[in-house]
């Protein structure tokens, strides 16, 4: 667990400006899937309750139905938890000096990358489609100079505003480095755990 | 030739599958909780998430245990018994 005021490899005078996760629509998708997968069997079970009551009273079929049912609902509960963990651990942190991208892909693959703001060449905000326009969310692409690597902030709220903040921070960071006489070409560091 | 209709197993055999699933469930859950605590950002949401998941699991598990406790786990499963009970449970058969 890490604290936003104590980032990994925190630099002097560095502080967090933006802490981003995917928009609440991602959570809504998980919730809707959960409601459908649990609600449909419950509603169907309620409709055919007379038959199910007879089956539950049976000495063999009764325990079998309860065990299979419990396993089904526990599997859904665990899947929802895994999906929510995936959402919760996918974060983008923009500080006064760098961008940190943490992505959880499934349970066994995790990528943590960071990019110096001074290396940012181009920032693009993209809002695509009816839902993204209505709820003001979309993607931001951060491209580095002379490199193919880029950071992709996926489904974040107010991408235009985020883009403006990043551009402003990039300018400030470049000025800070120029004033310090140590203009460096930033680089992307990627680590996978 | 052995008479298969007389072959029987207690229904407690179902519990083996149930326990196997629960072991997998607990291990996977613990691994996921470890991931959250190890890599998550400190905050109230993190504890809320783990607490809600744990409460839901406890509720489902103890609910099923209380329902299952009412059955006779020594009741034998026999082919002849299954065939005869099919007619009372599924009248169409």
Kindly describe this structure.
- The complex is a heterodimer of chains A (193) and B (93).
- With 193 residues, chain A is of the alpha+beta class.
- Chain A has 2 domains: 108 residues; 59 residues.
- Helices cover 46% and strands 27% of the residues of chain A.
- A 5-stranded antiparallel beta sheet of chain A has the order 1-2-3-4-8. Chain A has a 3-stranded antiparallel beta sheet with strand order 5-6-7.
- In chain A, β6 and β7 form a beta hairpin.
- In chain A, α1 runs antiparallel to α3.
- Chain A starts with 15 loop residues before the first strand and ends with a strand.
- Chain B has 93 residues and is mostly helical.
- Chain B has a domain of 61 residues.
- Chain B is built from 3 helices and 2 strands; from the N terminus they run βααβα.
- A two-stranded antiparallel sheet of chain B has the order 1-2.
- The radius of gyration of chain B is 21 Å and the shape is elongated.
């Amino acid at each position: 667990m890490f604290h936003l005021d104590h980032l990994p490899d925190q630099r002097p005078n560095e502080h967090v400006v933006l802490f981003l996760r995917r928009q609440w629509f991602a959570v809504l998708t998980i919730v809707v899937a959960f409601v459908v997968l649990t609600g449909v069997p419950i509603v169907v079970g309620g409709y055919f309750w007379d038959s199910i009551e007879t089956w539950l009273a049976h000495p063999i079929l009764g325990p079998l139905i309860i065990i299979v049912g419990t396993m089904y609902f526990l599997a859904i509960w665990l899947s929802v938890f895994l999906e929510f963990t995936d959402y919760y651990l996918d974060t983008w942190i923009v500080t006064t000096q760098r961008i940190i991208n943490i992505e959880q892909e499934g349970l066994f693959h995790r990528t943590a990358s960071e990019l110096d703001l001074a290396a940012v060449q181009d920032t693009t905000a993209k809002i695509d489609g009816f839902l993204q326009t209505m709820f003001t969310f979309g993607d931001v692409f951060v491209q580095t100079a002379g490199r193919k690597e880029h950071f992709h902030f996926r489904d974040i709220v107010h991408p235009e505003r985020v883009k403006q903040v990043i551009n402003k921070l990039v300018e400030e960071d470049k000025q800070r480095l120029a004033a310090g006489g140590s203009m460096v070409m930033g680089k992307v560091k990627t680590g996978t755990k | 030739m052995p008479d298969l209709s007389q072959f029987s197993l207690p229904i407690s055999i179902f519990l083996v599958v149930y326990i196997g699933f629960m072991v997998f469930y607990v291990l996977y859950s613990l691994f996921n909780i470890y991931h959250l605590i190890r890599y998550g950002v400190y905050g109230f949401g993190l504890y809320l998430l783990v607490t809600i998941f744990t409460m839901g699991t406890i509720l489902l598990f103890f609910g099923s245990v209380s329902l299952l406790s009412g059955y006779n786990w020594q009741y034998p499963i026999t082919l002849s018994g299954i065939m005869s009970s099919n007619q009372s449970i599924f009248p169409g058969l």
